[in-house]
Amino acid sequence: MLPTMETANKARKEHNDIKVLKAFIGTYCRGKHGSAKGELCPECTGFLAYAELRRRKCPLDPKPACKHCPIHCYSKERRALIREVMSYSGRRLMLRGRLDLVWHYFF
Questions:
Q1: SS3 of residue 1 by DSSP
Q2: pLDDT-derived band of residue 22, with 50, 70 and 90 as boundaries?
Q3: Which InterPro entries does UniProt cross-reference here (predicted)?
């Protein structure tokens, strides 16, 4: 059976969200933990796996930005960490010309 347009769009959105998570966490890890480009320290690798799982399991459709979500699926500690990651990485990625990430940073 062929996937519907809605299913394909949902999968594309999920893939894009995970790609953005990887970019943000990668930038954070390089800046804070001194990891090489394309690599993550063990702490950030674990956090990325946690964040990916949370994104894939999101019950809301359409998925809102996490800061506007009525359901907080991240633990309190991890929620603080993702806020720190987004704040740190968002500014740096925008200054490097990644304007496509402005949407994720502000919304």
A1: coil
A2: very high
A3: Uncharacterised_YgbA (IPR020483)
**pTM metric for this prediction:** 0.84
Q: What is the DSSP string of 29-97?
A: HHHHH-PPTT---HHHHHHHHHHHHHHHT---SSPPPGGG-SS--S-HHHHHHHHHHHHHHHHHHHHTT
Q: Where are the domains of the chain?
A: 16-106
- 8-17 in b/e burial notation, b at 16+ Cβ within 10 A? eeeeeeeeeb
Q: How does pLDDT run across 50-72, given as a tens digit for each residue?
A: 999 999 998 887 788 777 888 88
Q: What pLDDT was estimated at residue 59?
A: 86
